[in-house]
Amino acid sequence: MTKYIKIGFHLCLLFFFSCSNTDEDTCTKTIIVQVEQTVSGPSGTTFIPEITQEVPCDFPEPEVVEPIDEGNALTSFSYEVINFVFTPDTGNNTSRLQFEIKLNNENDFIVKGFPVLTIDSDNIQFVTSYANDAISPCFEIQANSSCNHTYDKETPLDPNLGPPPSKFDLISVKYVLK
């Protein structure tokens, strides 16, 4: 009888230790942090490789970024830069971008759209709209009126992406109609 108890005990131990670990904290997936790009600039062409990162399985999927079509830009439009400040390292392991830009609709009709900024970051120019995270996105500007496009956001520094840019300048602003 003790022989059967020993066999049963060993089988229970074997079953207990052979069960797979279903701990969800160990589940990971790989996401694309930055897509592969080729950027042409005044100093030639630069290839930027794809950057991936391993994250927990419950990490949200990154947003798909749609390209901005500047072809539908508002005419009779001007802007005034009230302030534009980029701090590469705030001392809190973050970088910070702050700006306020006065957008002027010089037309006799209301416009609906969003501002598009051309930025020069370490001699690489890109076009983006900070409207989704803006304090004041200016999705609508009244006729012969203005709206202050205001943005203030800190972003964590990621050593996997390299150092923050040392140069971050505003080149131009357009207002793209929806």
Properties at a glance:
single chain; 3-stranded antiparallel beta sheet; 4-stranded antiparallel beta sheet; about 180 residues; 1 helix; 11 strands; mainly beta
Task: Give the structural class.
Answer: mainly beta
Largest sheet: 4 strands, antiparallel
Share of helix, binned: under 10%
**Roughly what is the average pLDDT, rounded to an integer?**
80
Helix/strand layout:
Elements: H1 2-18, E1 28-34, E2 37-41, E3 44-48, E4 51-56, E5 77-87, E6 94-105, E7 111-121, E8 124-128, E9 140-141, E10 145-156, E11 168-177
Antiparallel strand pairs: 1-4, 2-3, 5-6, 6-10, 7-8, 7-9, 7-11
Write up what this structure looks like:
- This protein has one helix spanning 2-18; strands at residues 28-34, 37-41, 44-48, 51-56, 77-87, 94-105, 111-121, 124-128, 140-141, 145-156, 168-177.
- By secondary structure, it is mostly beta strands.
- The strands form four sheets. Strands 7, 8, 9 and 11 form a four-stranded antiparallel sheet that branches.
